[in-house]
Structures are given as C-alpha cells and as structure tokens.
Amino acid sequence: MIRAALISLVLTGTVAGCVQAQPEPGAFRPDYRGIETQLLDGDLVSFQVAMAGARTGEDVSDYAECAAAQYALIRGYGFARHVRTNVEKQGGLWLGDAVYTISSALPRGLRTIDAEVVAAHCAENGIPTV
C-alpha cells in the first residue's frame, strides 16, 4: 500500500525535488537590444534604448536609467538627473528616448540618481549598461 502511494506521488510529480520548475508563460524575459548615447550640450546626454520583452514602459525607462548611471561613472561623475523619457512600442520592440544631466555633485531636483548605487542595482538585476 505504501509502495503504491509513493509511486502515485512520483508519477504526479508531488515528491519534493523531483519536478523542475518550468518558467511561467508570460514570465519576464527581457531582450536588451542596445544603447546609443549622444552628448547634447555640456552635461546634457541623450540615451536611445531598444528592447523586446518589456512588460511596460517602466522596464524601458529602467534600461535608460542604467545607461545614464554607467555613462555618468565613465565620465567621472557621480550623479545624474532625469530630464525626460519618451517610450513607444513598435510591433514587439520597445524604444526609449531619455535625456539626463550628469554632474559631480548631487543636482537639484526630484529625479536625481546616485550613479554608483543605480549601476550596482542594474548589475544585480542583469540590466546592461553602456
């Protein structure tokens, strides 16, 4: 009787460790397609990002923010301030057009980022940077 119960549990996949978890349908699988940067004027920088598999425009904005954080660090700055981000979807491809200012001191404004903190967060979450 016990043997039959064990066989039943194994066949139905309810014995712990016997069944590998399958990814959920519709799970987040981002496909980062690249970043283009352009210095607009002095400390003003444009970031063009493209990705597939985004859940919402917020995923695209996060990608652009990661690019801005790393760009600031590469240029020897520690901070960035978000100016604007426009996101659009064309077919299955999400496009982001973001503008940030970069600076060595914490800039004024509400949408500022500490470049080191944000770049570390991006690395932890597998979001590529420039």
Number of domains: 1
Order of helices and strands: HEEHEEEH
Q: What would the CATH topology be? A: Gyrase A, domain 2
| Sheet with most strands | 5 strands, antiparallel
Shape: globular
**How large, in whole angstroms, is the Cα Rg?**
21 Å
Main CATH class: Alpha Beta
- The low-confidence parts are 1-20
- What is the number of helical segments per DSSP (H or I, 4+ residues)? 3
Helix share of residues? 25-40%
Strand order of the largest sheet: 1-2-4-3-5
Strands, total number: 5
**Which architecture per CATH?**
2-Layer Sandwich
Secondary structure elements and pairings:
Elements (H helix, E strand, L loop, with lengths): L1 H11 L18 E11 L2 E9 L4 H18 L4 E12 L2 E11 L8 E3 H10 L6
Antiparallel strand pairs: 1-2, 2-4, 3-4, 3-5
Helix pairs in contact: 2-3
Explain how this protein is built:
A hairpin with a 2-residue loop joins strand 1 (31-41) and strand 2. Helix 2 (57-74) packs across helix 3. The protein has three helices and five strands, in the order αββαβββα. The protein has helices at residues 2-12, 57-74, 115-124, and strands at residues 31-41, 44-52, 79-90, 93-103, 112-114. A five-stranded antiparallel β-sheet has the order 1-2-4-3-5. By secondary structure, the protein is of the alpha+beta class. It has a single domain (29-124), classed as Gyrase A, domain 2 (2-Layer Sandwich), CATH 3.30.1360.
